[in-house]
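Protocol step 6 of 9: fold each sequence in the batch and record its structure tokens directly after the sequence line. For illustration, a two-sequence batch is reproduced in full.

Sequence one:
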Amino acid sequence: MTHPVLSSCPVCKHKLTITRLHCKNCDTTIENDFALSRFSMLSGDDLAFIETFLLSRGNIKEVEKELGISYPTVRSKLNDIIINLGHDIVKHKHNTDETSVISMLEKGELTADEAVKQLKNNRRGN
């Protein structure tokens, strides 16, 4: 049985490094400092979202349907994952500005929590 790689120490919560690799077939062992993938730092929920996004070939409407969430929630989740991967959110024409977020909130297209998250993500992108 295999287990997912831990990315943080269960005792002190600091980042873990991989120092040993082993081949079960030929019994070769390699020791060194190996870097974890940025994706190993993501939660299981984030990885499941990414898989759904990829299987939908990036079609946000399909992701909405598959996960039963709104367009702003999909966008917000994408922004969160981008940040968790260590990247800055770059303002693109698709990012909503504060006026748009407020408008969507007034129309009931966003919850208050989603609006706050979107506004925070927009500020990070500036």
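Sequence two, same batch, same settings:
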Amino acid sequence: MMTPPQDPQKIEEYAGYLQIKKGSDLWYQFFDSAALESGKIPKDILEEKELVKKLPVFFRILRGKKATREALMELIEKIKRA
């Protein structure tokens, strides 16, 4: 299995072939999936410095570790604003 390209222009080209409307939910899902399949966090998420600081809490939750209520609420608020 091949990993998806990481060049945004190439991903956009593929999205065009698939007739995915630019800016649609599917558009962003397509780009996010390309990043995640390569083991990367989507670039636009990395630009949100405050949100990136909270990712360790999110990762702990995914691993089944307990996070404080305060940390969870702060993460939820950051996600809502993103």
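Proceed to step 7 once all outputs are recorded. Observation for sequence two: The chain has two domains: 8-43, 48-81.
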